[in-house]
Amino acid sequence: MTGLPAFPEHARPGAQPAQPGRPALSDRLPRPWLFPLLVFAATWLLILADWYGSDAVYGHAHPWTWHFLFKDALYYLAIAERGYKRTSPFPWGRSGSAIDRRTAFFPLFPLLIRLASYLTGGNFLIAGLVVSVLAGAASAVSVWVLAARLCDRRVADRAVALYCFFPGAMTFGMLYSEPLAVALGAAALLALLDRRWLLAGIIGALSTAERPTMIVLVAVSGFAAAQAIWSRREWRALIAPALTPLGMLAFFGYLGRRYHDYAFWFGVERDGWKEHFGWGEHTLRIMLWADPGTSRYAIYNVLLIAMFAAAVAGIVMMFAARLPIPVSLFAILVVATCVVSSGQSTKPRFVWAAFPIFIGAAAKLPRFLYWPVLVVSAASLAFVIGWWPNHYFGPAP
């Protein structure tokens, strides 16, 4: 049979043990799923070492909150504490205030922080740390489980290591929403893999209430539903793509009622954050070292180019590994959303959110290449964690 495997026919009944040969590292543990948690813990040890190591290098004595509450993290914390502003003077031209720009951030992540604050005695900072760590751990386990289902545990072990030591994993140590988005995205794909359409739709709705880029799950679940209908006349599969966009639509409806404009979020993106849909011209300028906003910052420009190259290589290896089309489609669309953005481009955390590329790389990278790639990736992660906050000039990577 040629071409990519159909989805969900490619599904397997459970996480597959490693193929004959040397056992996977996870098979040597009392519970195989402990492996991704250990890798996640190792990433956190690297983050902590970087925090205090960079302070020593730069002669600072910053508290841990200086690293953890970096840039966008303050918006999430403010939403968790005080919610969205009751009224807004929008349109505010081209200079919206920070409190107005807060409405660009989707509600699920700060809502979880607020709920956790009831367990931390009203301490929102500790609640944010708890939610961030749990979301990061869940993302690592979810990526491992998905890789084990699609391939085997040896590939899953390799994939979760690549995922946890990619430069975008710097968000494990920041109050950012990407780890939760990865956990939900992997869970949605697993539900589609099991043809649990209602569960996939519910997780999809939570995902689109978490980050705007998760709207790609509508196309992914739509493709899986179309395949199920074509091959088995399983019309119930339409539940998943029908439910998935409801999280985003509910948030837009909330903003519309609050600010009397159902397109309010798009105005915030355009006027408050200078963001709009493009055709990739911004990314092309970066690749050609011709973008005035990034070319003057050599390290940042090199980082964006390297992340673009990593994304392309990951997509190629996904196809080589013959991952199911919706799994590959998810990664391609996530990468595409940052490529066509007018102001974001291929930042490490955006490429990192296209986590199936790590499964493809884990499946296809030969051993003599896998370990150098992992070491270089971990070194890049360490560099970004320690260097970026001390040379902050604008957007976070």
Mean pLDDT across every amino acid position? 88
Shape: globular
Give the number of DSSP strands.
Answer: 0
Specify the structural class: mainly alpha
Poorly predicted regions are 6-14, 91-99
Helix coverage percent:
55-70%
Radius of gyration: 21 Å
Estimate the strand proportion.
under 5%
Instruction: Report, as a whole number of angstroms, the end-to-end distance.
Output: 41 Å
The largest sheet, given as strand count, sense and whether it forms a barrel, is: none
Question: Describe it for me?
Answer:
The protein has 19 helices and no strands. The chain has helices at 34-58, 64-68, 73-82, 98-101, 108-117, 124-150, 153-164, 178-193, 197-208, 216-232, 239-243, 246-259, 264-272, 281-287, 298-320, 325-339, 348-352, 356-364, 367-387. Helix 1 (34-58) packs across helix 19. The radius of gyration is 21 Å and the shape is globular.
Task: Give the helix/strand layout.
Elements: H1 34-58, H2 64-68, H3 73-82, H4 98-101, H5 108-117, H6 124-150, H7 153-164, H8 178-193, H9 197-208, H10 216-232, H11 239-243, H12 246-259, H13 264-272, H14 281-287, H15 298-320, H16 325-339, H17 348-352, H18 356-364, H19 367-387
Helix pairs in contact: 1-6, 1-7, 1-19, 3-5, 5-6, 6-7, 6-8, 7-18, 8-9, 9-10, 9-12, 10-16, 15-16, 15-18
